[in-house]
Amino acid sequence: MSTDQPTPVLKLGWEEWIALPELGLPALRAKIDTGARTSALHATEIETFGPSTKPRVRFTVHPVPGQDHPLIPCSAEVVDRREVTSSNGESEMRYVIRTPIEVGGQSWPIEVTLTDRRGMTSHMLIGRQALGDTITVAPSERFCQPELSYDVYASARLRKSAPNRTLRIAVLSRENNFSTRRLVEEGEKRGHVVEVIDTSRCYMAINTLAPEVHYDGTRLPRYDAVIPRIGASVTQYGTAVIRQFETLGTHCVNGSTGITASRDKLHAHQILAGQRIGMPSTAFAASPKDTSNLIGLVGGAPLIVKLLESTQGKGVVLAETKKAAESVITAFRGLKANFLVQHFVKEAAGEDIRCLVVGGKVVAAMKRTGAEGDFRSNLHLGGKAVVARITREERDTAVRAARAFGLNLAGVDLLRAESGPKVLEVNSSPGLEGIERASGKNITGLLYDHIESRVRPAPAKPRRSSRRTSG
């Protein structure tokens, strides 16, 4: 078999079943038209992306004529853009892609133009340019080659066998840090187009029919996925932007609700308690008259006083005596700060376990030890990290905690207490540097594995019609 055309003689009727496997289209009914020069595929939502030196195009295909589902998202490299004149005499500029076609067990590459063929009886037209000398066409016959079925789109195997098409991904981040750079680097290594979007520079058109997200004066394109890296200082606005993407139907790695809840320490602990997930005894009160009772609820001193929106160990104070606890609480109240008090787990000895959860699985864990004289183990404060072996109970606790907030990417911090693992915090924007270096694993790659699995075409519902359904 040559690289360009099949060598055996292949007989085609004026209509045949074909497949375009690299586009994730295992079954299409196509019209064989020797009167047309170019081949055409029915495509909608056609949009170019990527670098101008090597542009790509993404589009959606309705493989079944007359039906809105299934809807298959596709992408391919652009090989040309040319003017095509249709049979009714109208000219149109179309993007041209090159992809293998399979017919009757044979395969060869063809060029295909993308156009909206809505209302046409065939969603795929094969022109003479795609037919070599070894192919004969019988204009009066149909289905000379084995027939396929649209029922293949109802198979659960479709999702598993779908090609890893190029994705357009937005990273919502205001910082050019290690995590942001790794997300861009790993995504581009896989052939995806990754754009970093400054959350604070987004603005939104909120309406019922056409909600939009704008950035620097232009409407943002349709993304396959959004990876939120929302800083604590812009949580409220950042989650509003994520809600807008959710309204548009974009897959967001972490949803707005989970991010909002995880950032509010009080709300977060209420969620953990509601799911019966182990955590240090925690108490909260607004009135200064309740200070003594508040300290008693967590077992007395030593205890932790923590701001509700503290991050990276900031706003967390260890009070070793009751008098010290009362002084810290009074000071926080004087600043009109919202805080909670928490039992101090002595046996943790200034260490915690960071479990990195991706897609409902713990993919790595590290033990963090605080700097000398500091009970906080945050790496940003000089703590050190080494890879950790965790127990089944610790693994289950981390997974349940991430699931309680609906987070597909989460850093779950555990304390090893005598009574079992206690969740200290659930981080919706965990740093990738420390965990990748400690574990030696490509955590960012595992995140992209999850994203790719989530944005592949979903199987359609089984159809009751026969294989030769007209359309």
From TrEMBL:
GO annotation terms (biological process): SOS response; translation
Tagged with keyword Cell membrane: no
Keywords assigned by UniProt, alphabetized: ATP-binding, Ligase, Magnesium, Manganese, Metal-binding, Nucleotide-binding, Protein biosynthesis
Cofactor(s) needed: Mg(2+); Mn(2+)
Domain of life according to the entry: Bacteria
Transmembrane feature ranges: none
Domain ATP-grasp, first and last residues per copy: 269-452
Record-level Gene Ontology MF annotations: ATP binding; metal ion binding; ribosomal S6-glutamic acid ligase activity
Entries under Pfam families matching the protein: RimK (PF08443), Rimk_N (PF18030), Zn_protease (PF05618)
InterPro entries the record matches: Asp_endopeptidase, ATP-grasp, ATP-grasp_RimK-type, ATP_grasp_subdomain_1, Peptidase_aspartic_dom_sf, Rimk_N, Rp_bS6_RimK/Lys_biosynth_LsyX
One GO cellular component term: cytoplasm
Family the UniProt entry places it in: In the C-terminal section; belongs to the RimK family.
Name listed for the protein in its UniProt record: Probable alpha-L-glutamate ligase
Organism in which the protein naturally occurs: Salinihabitans flavidus
